[in-house]
Structure formats: structure tokens, C-alpha cells
Amino acid sequence: MRIRNYGQVILTSLTINYQLDSGTVYTFSWNGSLAPGSTTDIVLPALTAVAGTHTLIAFTTDPNGTTDLNTFNDTRMHTFDITSNVVIAPVVEGFENTTFPPATWFINDFNVPPMLIRFASAGGFGNSTSSIRARGRVIPNAYASLVSSPIDFTSLVAPISLTFNVAYAMYNASSTDSLNVYVTTDCGETWTRKYSKTANALATAPMVQANFTPDPNEWRNEIIDLSSYAGQQNVQVRFEFYVDMGNNIHVDDINLYDAVIGINEHDNSAVSVFPNPAAGIVHFNLPSSNTGSIGIYSAIGSLVKEVHVNESSIDVNIADLQTGIYVYRYISGNSKPIIGKLVKE
Q: Nearest-CA neighbor of 210 among 117, 113, 137?
């Protein structure tokens, strides 16, 4: 949990009281040095709970060993869900359902008002009207996360890909809003960061000194390679948003799939590749001239080559690749990926 010193003097001690549902109220003594206006994160002792919906209440007492005269900001309550269900890939989430958070996803958002909302006025590349919005214009120095249920990777075949669409505009040159994506295989004990972009690197549109709502051409598709998690039974993904009175971050069209799902579900006849097999130059005829990318993956799922395209055809030199079988993946905008085999002679 995170505490903030709203007082006028340095905070050196505090009692944190916390309760799960209607159970025992536990106490935790904190000691440190927290300047006025500053925050610090505290890890409380673990609590256990069964599957279902739960409420955690935490409140502070005895700041610096005295009575707190302003108690209006001392208490926080958070409702969360625990699931014993494991999701089977593919995972497809477009935030079209009015239920929020969506089924099999959870929100960690202790902000008041909440940072993360279902936004019903803009979707990825204009192909829908819904997305998740992190409200960066109204919330200072805060984090919130969207977390998946455990996903079964035991039968997935590399390459395994997590894709999503993002839209963001900085408010001014000082904006520091960010988006990070983490993965865990131990129920959140440890998280590995797989994606991180902040400010200019995250931006998909010019600065705007107003609440940012993206136009259809102000989105970007992102791809994260999760092939190294093939064979894992419980994989969770966390989208972590950080905002500090900058601007809104939008995410839409979260998809997780592997090579088998891609080849079976997405007709690769829309892309022609020749010669195939090839020893050097491979020519790709693509279904459109929209901005997109072609990724080439090894048999174990490693991304060995990536090219960005904005035409309906492109030549790719694979002379530097070792002889063997590869998988190519073409993705453009909000369209489903097109996946096929490529043989290097």
C-alpha cells in the first residue's frame, strides 16, 4: 500500500490498521522519514482468502505518536476478486461489454476518484467505440493496474504474442505519464517487465492541452513476444498505468495468441510470399498499404527480424538467417495478425 504525508512536518512513525472483509483488524507499525507531500510504498504481511469477491480496508492512526486531527484522508477501501479459474488462450479483450472490469480481468486502483474507467467514446483505430482510459488529466502522481486471470500456456506454440493498441498525447513537455506491461508466473510474487514507454516514447499524437480523446489515426499497435513462457501453467499479465496530471492513456484490443492459433484462425492467403523456400530476398505482397510490421520468428519463438511497412509490398533480405523453418507474422492497425511459414534454404 502507499501512504502520503499530507501534514506539515516530517512523518517518522505511523500505525497502519487493516482488515479483510469482516475479519480481524491487524496492525502494522511503520517507522521512517517521510517529508510533507511525499509518498512511500509499504508491503503489509500477507493475508489469505478463498476465491470470490473481497474487501480490504486500511486506515492509519498515531502519526508521530500523536492523534491525527484530520482523519478525512486516513481510510481507504478496495474491493477485489480472486479467481481459481485458468483462462485458455486465445485471449481477446476489446472492452465492448459494459461490465468493468471485464470478466477474467481485475483492477488494482486505490485512487479517488478511480483512475481506470471504461471509456465509451473511442476505440482502437476507430474500429470500436470502447477502450480503457487512465485519467491522467485529473489524477496526480498515481498508479493503477489492469491484471489478467491466470492464463494456461502449457499447450501454446511459439511464437506467442501479446498485442494491444495504445493512444496517448502529452499535455506539455513536462508530462511523465507511462505505461508498463509485466508478466508473472508465481501469482504475483515476482513480476518481469516486458514493455515500458513514457512521455514522448508513449505518445501517438501531438501534445494537446485538454483531455485527450484519440482520433482513429492516433493509435499505435504494440507487440510483445511472450514465447519464453511457453509451457507455463499460470501466466498473468499486468498493464500498469502511471499518471501525474499529464494526459489520458487509452488501451484497447488486447489479444494473446500463439502460432497455431494464428495459422488456424487467420487466413494467410491474404499475404503472398515468394520465393518460399528462399536463400536471400523474399518478396511479400500484403493486403493493404496501411502502416504495419512483419516479424520473422525462429522455431523456438525468438524474434530474429522485424521490418516496418507502409506499402502493399516489400522485399525482405533473409540471407543472414540460418537455414531452417521460420514463422512470419504480419499485423497492420487493428486487424488480426496473418501468420505463415517461411523456409530459409
A: 137
d(CA 25, CA 75): 13
Q: Among 70-74, 110-114, 122-126, name the one with the lowest average pLDDT.
A: 70-74
Question: Which residues have C-beta within 8 Å of that of residue 48, sequence separation ≥ 6?
Answer: none
Q: Where would I find the beta strands (DSSP E) of 192-286? A: 192-198, 220-225, 236-243, 249-257, 272-274, 281-285
Is-contact 226 162, C-beta < 8 A? Answer: yes
**Residue holding cell 515468394?**
274
Identity of the residue numbered 260: V
Rounded mean pLDDT of 53-75? 90
Contact criterion met (CB below 8 Å) for 95 and 140: no
**In whole angstroms, what is the distance from residue 135 CA to residue 116 CA?**
7
Confidence of residue 88 (pLDDT cuts 50, 70, 90): confident
Q: What is the pLDDT of residues 129-160, one digit of tens each?
A: 999 999 999 999 999 999 999 999 988 888 89
Q: Which helix (H) or strand (E) holds 32?
A: strand 25-34
C-alpha distances in angstroms, 293 versus 209, 229, 307, 309?
31, 23, 6, 6
Residue 192 and residue 301: Cα distance in Å, rounded?
A: 18
How far is Cα 197 from Cα 167, in angstroms, rounded to an integer?
A: 12
- Report the distance separating Cα 9 and Cα 37, nearest Å: 10
**Domains contained in the chain, CATH given:** 1-82 (2.60.40.10), 84-257 (2.60.120.200), 266-344 (2.60.40.3080)
- Asked if 65 and 13 count as a contact pair (C-beta separation under 8 A), the reply is yes
Q: Give the single-character DSSP code of 225.
A: E
Half-sphere exposure of 221 (CA within 13 A, CB side): 22
**Which pLDDT does position 206 carry in this prediction?**
97
Contact 1, 10 (CB under 8 A): no
pLDDT, one tens digit per residue, over 189-235 is 899 999 999 999 999 999 999 999 999 999 998 999 999 999 999 99
